[in-house]
Amino acid sequence: MTPGGPNPVNFTDIIQEIHPDWWLVGGRTVRIDDRTTIDQSLGTAEPGAEVRVVGIALFPSNDIQATSITVVRPAGGVQVNEFTGTILEMNGDLWLIGNTLVDVSEATINGTAAIGSVATVRAERQGDEIWMAVWVNIQDDPEPVYISGIIDAVSSASIVVDGTVILIDADTQFTGVPPAVGLRASVRAIERSDGYHALSIDVDEPTPTSVPPTVTPVPPTATPTPQPPTDTPEPPTLTPEPPTDTPEPP
């Protein structure tokens, strides 16, 4: 799934489940509403029928908002499917390739398969049974490279990290916060003939900017200067007291 704008999707696969507002088509959740047109001129839209879905991939759920669904083959009979995708899971003979679960127990496998390998598959099934692979061709991809730096640009089909253009598609795994210019990203990618293809992109959260506190200086308190006394003390005046006793006559 690619961020930054609408991501058109056009694929053909088998209806597995039908619900009032969403269908499961080839392992993908396809959302429908009153704007979705459904063409059943070649057969009934029901589990087991093969349909072509046109719509927009939603980020980050990777669900499909369908604008049109067209039945291209009714349910029943042998169905043949040939597709290319990334091997996401390998549980014994059951492999998840792209969004399709495939049984490879009777398949001819060319190449060494591993999680993350790109494989081209031809498979068959009846009705809504699991796809049985006839053959699987594993593409030899180089070792992943790691690119880290600041995001310079983001579009619906690519991301530019530290000056390097990296292509993104529906198989690219995103972790962290949504990509945005100025954030730091770590990308795991492989280099093919048409450039780098992102396998995973991890975007760091923005670092909060700390604002230093504003300190207002307090003016010093003035110390009063003692003033010298202005009064000159007067010397004390002593007045002798007359005797108060009168002597007695003899």
Q: Could you characterize what this model shows?
A:
The protein has three domains: 7-73, Beta Barrel (OB fold (Dihydrolipoamide Acetyltransferase, E2P)); 80-138, OB fold (Dihydrolipoamide Acetyltransferase, E2P), CATH 2.40.50.140; 145-203, Copper binding periplasmic protein CusF (OB fold (Dihydrolipoamide Acetyltransferase, E2P), Beta Barrel). The chain has no helices and 18 strands. The model has no long low-confidence stretch (mean pLDDT 84). The protein has a five-stranded mixed β-barrel. The protein has a five-stranded mixed barrel with strand order 7-8-9-12-11. It has a five-stranded mixed β-barrel with strand order 13-14-15-18-17. With 250 residues, the protein is mainly β. A hairpin with a 3-residue loop joins strand 13 (145-154) and strand 14.
Question: Could you give a short description of this structure?
Answer:
The chain folds into three domains: 7-73, Nucleic acid-binding proteins (OB fold (Dihydrolipoamide Acetyltransferase, E2P)), CATH 2.40.50; 80-138, Beta Barrel (OB fold (Dihydrolipoamide Acetyltransferase, E2P)); 145-203, Beta Barrel (OB fold (Dihydrolipoamide Acetyltransferase, E2P)), CATH 2.40.50.320.
